[in-house]
Design brief:
alpha/beta, Rossmann fold, five-stranded antiparallel β-sheet, about 35% strand, elongated, DNA-binding, Sig_transdc_resp-reg_receiver
Length: about 260
């Protein structure tokens, strides 16, 4: 099946590697453009009008999510990224698939098959039964996206990558464009890691029954709270289990700990 595609990734080697793998799995696919960032992807899309866009998420100038919102439903959108925490935003932006790097040939092959099926249906025109089935699938997907919360975070230290279970996190603190994650290991030893996602993006993906924002730049795992100490009428501090630091609670978020 013939189709036209755009590939956007700020890492040139990864971008070219994906292009080569797509040409192997889908020889008829015409790669009409390669973009180095989200803004360039939008410009190439407007100029070439491809059927499919493969987008990385974290890119300079404009993110893949922002580019996807510009493209909208004018193309099939596939995200290829090392970060799983943007899946909800990606599907809300209209993604057909979300691939986590490193992507196996089998997983990429599944994505290609799904794209081919979608394009084939578009050419043939969907039946009433097909439209009903798609509506039901979309409803289930939307329900999943709304109910699913992050289960773990991925943090890099040198050449190593660590997976931090969300329930082991004690608190998260904004650190410029990054987030400092304070967590504990299986023995209860307090540890810290820095991840490349801003706190404002992470908060929306955390379970609100477990995590609460306590300050403009901090959120705490409620299960890790030892006690809350009032400083004055408009502020307080949180003491944590197994950690010496105390976290300030601003007036805006005092209601979280108000006794009922």
């Amino acid at each position: 099946m013939n189709a036209r595609a755009l590939v956007a990734d700020d890492e040139p080697l990864l971008r070219e590697h994906l292009v080569q793998r797509l040409r192997t799995l889908w020889p008829e696919l015409d790669i009409v453009g390669q973009a180095r960032n989200g803004r360039e992807a939008v410009e190439l899309f407007d100029r070439s009008q491809p059927d499919i866009c493969f987008l990385d998420v974290q890119m300079p100038a404009m993110t893949g999510i922002e580019a996807a919102r510009h493209i909208g439903g004018a193309a099939r959108l596939v995200f290829v990224t090392a970060f799983d925490q943007y899946a909800v935003d990606a599907f809300e932006a209209g993604a057909l698939d979300y691939l986590i790097k490193p992507v196996t040939d089998a997983r990429l092959g599944q994505c290609v098959a799904r794209l081919q099926q979608q394009l084939r249906m578009l050419q043939q025109g969907p039946s009433a039964d097909t439209l009903l089935d798609l509506a039901r699938r979309l409803q289930r997907l939307e329900g999943f996206a709304k109910s699913e919360h992050l289960k773990w975070l991925r943090a890099s230290l040198g050449s190593a990558t660590y997976l931090i279970p969300v329930h082991d996190i004690d608190y998260l603190k904004a650190d410029q464009k990054y987030t400092r994650v304070a967590y504990h290991d299986a023995d209860g030893k307090p540890l810290e890691a820095l991840i490349r996602s801003p706190l404002k993006d992470l908060i929306t993906q955390l379970d609100p029954d477990r995590f609460s924002q306590i300050h403009r730049g901090a959120a705490v795992n409620l299960h890790a709270v030892k006690r809350v100490v009032r400083i004055d009428r408009d502020s307080a501090e949180v003491e944590l289990k197994g950690r010496p630091e105390r976290l300030p609670v601003s007036k805006t978020f005092l209601a979280v700990f108000r006794e009922t």
